[in-house]
Specification:
single chain, 3-stranded antiparallel sheet, globular
Amino acid sequence: MLPDGSEPTAQGPEVHTSTSQGASLLRRPSDRYGPASRDKVTNPQQLASELAEAFRAHCPQIRHGLVAAPSGAEALTAVGRAGPCNHESATAKLSAVVRGWEHRFGARVVTVGLSTLHLGIATPPGSEHEALLVAAEHLAFCPDTIRQSSRPYTPAAYAERIAGAHRWDFWWD
């Protein structure tokens, strides 16, 4: 479930905010980002800030907070988060995966809910092969996002969705 109570879809939420960059980042599909390329690097902190602002504008009921931690991945464990419902109660394991994405893709934790996690991705997978490998990681990390969305994905279709996408959304049932 997304912060506004809706379920994630293949398209994701259409958001209109005062910052056109923030609004375009919350929209799907990845064709808004041009051709997938690892050469295109976005500032991770700026991207996360713009996404957080877009979430705040789209879902004003959400309360954002700051956590004293070396990274967003570490913050997931530092706050004592119990982990996603019905999947994995050891938050440190999920933090380790997110930490790897921080290093490999410039991922930044943007918003966390009881059963959701939204990441800004500065350098998304650029090739079809790399996106397919990351799709397998996403399937292991959060199978509900792929298998139980309003339109379940095959791994190849999900890989196509995330190739070039500057935002990854995870939802656990």
